[in-house]
Amino acid sequence: MRAFVFPGQGAQVVGMGRELAEAYPAARDVFIEVDEALGEKLSALIWDGDIETLTLTQNAQPALMATSMAAFRALEAEGINITEASYVAGHSLGEYSALCAAGALTLADTAQLLRLRGQAMQEAVPIGQGAMAAILGLDFETVDRIAREAAEDGVVQAANDNDPAQVVISGHKEAVERAAAAAKEAGAKRALMLPVSAPFHSVLMQPAAAVMADALAGVDIQPPAVPLIANVRAEPVIEPGAIRRLLVEQVTGTVRWRESVMHLTDSGVTEFWEIGAGKALSGMIKRIARDAVVKNIGTPADIIALKG
Q1: Which of 66, 99, 195, 265 might form a disulfide with 104, Cβ 3.0–4.6 angstroms?
Q2: Is the pLDDT at 160 greater than 90, yes or no?
Q3: How far from chain centre, in Å, is Cα 162?
Q4: Which of these, 33, 19, 102, 22, lies nearest to 66 by C-alpha position?
Q5: What is the separation of C-alpha 166 from the centre of its chain, rounded to a whole number of angstroms?
Q6: Which residues form the Malonyl-CoA:ACP transacylase (MAT) domain (predicted)?
């Protein structure tokens, strides 16, 4: 069995998706449609802009989705469609890419939702007040406990359970720094402050969750062609009302990626295709399920390799 998985923020690079657009008209059409949906040339920023502007949350989110969908449309042009997978999943914003690929959301709606999501997440907490840190070498339960103990009168929580030895914490800057220091004392190999401008996937994102609840209420969501493994439940979902609720919960909830991959392997998935920019998910998957076959689909060369 196979799962198609879609990357989240942090995978962005200038130039991503350009080769796909040059090689496949269907991939080029993705970038054209996203540009039209947003009323701007996001494709120009993706291919020829500067990394600082591309990395701004409101740009990175739709840009990464567009690149994933361009890769997916290229696969379809080669005769590989969504039913070649038994499940889809995505890391944070990648969940929107997964839903788009599975036909639950239109491409235009997905682009507009992610632009709004990025703006709302950035505006939820004033710059400088929030932070995130990656804790390496400790398991989720340990990091979760350390975060709760370090919170004091602030907020810090386990935001991303990425793999058996990588957990990201998020919250008020001072509380995150306290938790990172405590994690080092508890034996973490590293505690790295991340170059982000907002505390994603923490309760501090509640204003953004409210914005997304309003936006999603007005968007048509269809049952996906294959089940989505939802970030906040690490379980399959297919009913549109449940998808809508979980996308709102996802803004403030923990990304349960380790458990999601475990659920997939327990369900019989042995092959994962990471569709879009970068290879971050592939590394996580190999640390969670060492026997899994992992393939990256981000360039025409990757697609040619699939064909043998």
Answers
A1: 99
A2: yes
A3: 11
A4: 33
A5: 16
A6: 5-302
Spatial contact of 125 and 157, defined as CB atoms under 8 Å apart: no
Q: What secondary structure does DSSP assign to the chain, as a single string? A: -EEEEE--TT---TTTTHHHHHH-HHHHHHHHHHHHHHTS-HHHHHHHS-HHHHHSHHHHHHHHHHHHHHHHHHHHHTT--GGG-SEEEESTTHHHHHHHHTTSS-HHHHHHHHHHHHHHHHHSS-TTTEEEEEEESS-HHHHHHHHHHH-TTS-EEEEEEEETTEEEEEEEHHHHHHHHHHHHHTT-SEEEE---SS-TTSGGGHHHHHHHHHHHHTS--PPPSS-EE-TTTSSEE--HHHHHHHHHHHHHS-B-HHHHHHHHHHTT--EEEEESS-SHHHHHHHHH-TT-EEEEESSHHHHHHHT-
pTM recorded for the entire structure = 0.95
Q: Is 22 exposed, middle or buried (0-12, 13-18, 19+ CB in 10 A)?
A: exposed
CA angle (92 as vertex; 205, 36 as ends), nearest 5: 95
Domains of the chain (ranges; CATH) run 2-124+204-306 (3.40.366.10), 130-197 (3.30.70.250)
pLDDT in tens, 75-122: 999 999 999 999 999 999 999 999 999 999 999 999 999 999 999 999
